[in-house]
Amino acid sequence: MSTIRNAVHILYYLFSPFKKMLALYLIAVIALAGLEVFRVSLVYPIINYGLDVENQHRLLDTFFDLILPGSMHPFLASALLLLLTTAFIAVFYGVVAYSGAYVFAAVRDSLDRRIFARLIGNDYSYFAAKKQGDLLYIGQGAVTESGLAINQ
After folding, report:
1. Which of 64-78, 79-93, 128-142 has the lowest mean pLDDT?
2. What are phi and psi of 148, to 5 degrees?
3. 41 near 48, Cβ under 8 Å?
4. Which of 32, 45, 37 is nearest to 81 (CA)?
5. Are the C-beta atoms of 89 and 35 separated by less than 8 Å?
6. C-alpha distance from residue 31 to each of 62, 64, 92, 94, 96 (Å)
7. Is 20:112 a contact under the CB 8 Å cutoff?
8. pLDDT per residue as tens digits for the range 125-146
């Protein structure tokens, strides 16, 4: 249990500056899911009016009677509402996708900067004990040599 607790503490430390952004993104994703459910429910009156089915009055029918204008034919009003809702969902989906990319790019950039600043703040003995540069040099040399071997 302590490893899970430690992992949660580390994640909280890393993501705590972004609580508001992540919460807004989560709310936007939940709203998008609700809009998708609403869009699927808009097919119900189109099928009913298209097939001329008369059902008993239900909650969904009452809701659609409140939304749809009474002056238009119910089939056309339902189809128009579905079209407008689909267009709104497409725009909202673009906004959510862009904001998600922005949020996670900001989180990644901030974490990279914080970790790099923490590493740079270490003294020389840390870098002498942790020879990460050797691994990078060997890896870069392997890439260069394999590229030369392929080209010959």
Report:
1. 128-142
2. -65, -40
3. no
4. 45
5. yes
6. 23, 20, 9, 13, 10
7. no
8. 766 666 666 656 666 676 677 6
